[in-house]
Amino acid sequence: MVEILLVVGVGVAMFVGFNIGGSSTGVAFGPAVGSGVLSKVTAGVLMSIFFLAGGAIVGPNVVSTMGGDIVPEQHFSLAASVGILFFVGGALLVANSFGVPASTSMTAVSSIVGLGMAVGDVNWDVLGRIVAWWIVAPVLAFWIGGVIGRYIYPWLDARFALESSDGPLLTIDRSRSIPRPALGPGTTGRELVGSVVILAIACYSAFSAGASNVANAVAPLVGSGALSMTAGVVVACSAVAVGAFTIARRTLDTVGSDLTDLPLLAALIVATVASSLTTFLSYIGIPVSLALSAIMCIVGLGWGRATRVTTIPQAVRREKEVPVTTRALTIEEEEKKPRAIGEEEPEDVLDASDLYDPAATGRVIALWIFTPGSAVTLSYLFFTAIFTLV
Questions:
Q1: Residue 262 — left, alpha, or beta (φ > 0 → left; ψ -120 to 50 → alpha)?
Q2: What is the pLDDT of residue 6?
Q3: 190-194, 267-271, 371-375: which has the highest mean pLDDT?
Q4: C-alpha to C-alpha distance for 148 and 290, rounded to whole angstroms
Q5: What pLDDT digit, counting tens, does each position of 290-330 carry?
Q6: Where are the alpha helices (DSSP H) in the chain?
Q7: Into how many domains does the chain fold?
Q8: Phi, psi angles (nearest 5°) of residue 171
Q9: H or E segment and range at residue 182
């Protein structure tokens, strides 16, 4: 019976990891694939490598938190661990059916809390610290994006506009006795440097995804003692690799094509900010949503860019109306040199195409709230019923 439960548990954990690989690969490598820097196969290879690195180096910190700090390890029986993973996998399935990337970390933590409430043993101090960071991290991402959008983004856009030429970035020069790499036809040094930056940030995002998401797939099994930490990391990363080479192809297409709405430079800034926050929080053992930080950074970046139409004194005295919008990142200026804060007009911002759909964003946020809430409720009811019957 134990062996059957273990096989089922590993199977469900791999299902969770498979879905994580599908969604995280698109988030991490979508900009690189969309700009032509990488093929989908190469993206899958790099995702597998750097997700494993993040999962092995930083991931155990989050596994320890979710597998024993929120609810003591003695409550993680193999059956309870399998039940928790079913809730996480089910939440992913529901969210995917709505086309919304659910916060796997929030759902997993909520399912574990449901178990703890059922047995009457939850470390509320640890849980309070986690929930506090769930609130602080998106707010922090918004304001970091806002500051960059208002004071830095236009200058970066003017100096480091990322454009790609047709054909390969690099070729092999065989005109000499020793073949050596050379720039491809039409490739400039600036384009090569930009491509390297895109690749580095994509790998960093994959590392961050591994640091935060390994625990979501295997923390209950590690907490129950059914899997060792090393075995858990291997199981999760193997499943993610399968997802990176299969279902991730669709998310790579989606994120790559969406770059017409979200400029490549903005996407790289968002990836850097969100990945840095996620890696830091994973290092201190906090399970957090990479996607939520990324979306709030997008909103903050666009909002900060839009507020450049007025100076702070003008805003305080209300001398000039500020259009609160995130549609400002796609502005195409006739002159590449950015204008000073206060020199742009509101209509310049409002004429830009939409960066995001407010209705869709509301749907995403609503499901982010609903999914963990329903997970903790259903988990509590399920485990209460089970322990009552036992």
A1: beta
A2: 86
A3: 267-271
A4: 19
A5: 877 887 888 788 788 877 777 666 655 665 555 554 455 55
A6: 2-34, 40-57, 59-64, 78-97, 104-119, 124-147, 153-159, 189-224, 229-245, 248-257, 264-283, 290-306, 312-317, 346-350, 358-389
A7: 1
A8: -130, 175
A9: strand 180-183
Q: What is the distance between the alpha carbons of residues 20 and 248, in angstroms, rounded to a whole number? A: 9
CA 12 to chain centroid, in Å, comes to 22
Going 237 to 238 to 239 to 240, the CA torsion angle's sign is positive
Contact 293, 137 (CB under 8 A): yes
Q: Which of 386, 226, 238, 215 is nearest to 285 (CA)?
A: 215
User: What is the rounded distance in angstroms from the CA atom of residue 58 to the CA atom of residue 225?
Assistant: 20
Handedness of CA 167, 169, 174, 175 (dihedral sign): positive
How far is CA 168 from its chain centroid? Answer: 29
State the Cα–Cα distance between residues 185 and 183, nearest whole angstrom. 7
> pLDDT (tens digit, 9 = 90+) per residue, 213-236?
999 999 999 988 889 999 999 999
The pLDDT of residue 188 is above 70: no
Distance CA(245)–CA(253), nearest Å, equals 13
Residue 219, burial from CB neighbour count under 10 angstroms (0-12, 13-18, 19+): buried
Q: What residue type is assigned to position 233 of the chain? A: V
CB 154 within 8 A of CB 309: no
pTM of the model: 0.82
Q: Which residue has the tokens 């004194």?
A: 313
The answer to whether the CB of 205 falls within 8 A of the CB of 28 is yes
Q: Helix, strand or coil for residue 171?
A: strand
Which of 243-247, 282-286, 301-305 shows the highest mean pLDDT?
Answer: 282-286
Of 197, 245, 165, 239, nearest in space to 31 by CA: 197
211 contact partners, CB below 8 Å, separation of at least 6: 54, 55, 57, 58, 59, 62, 278, 279, 282, 283
Q: Give the separation between CA 56 and CA 15, rounded to whole angstroms.
A: 20
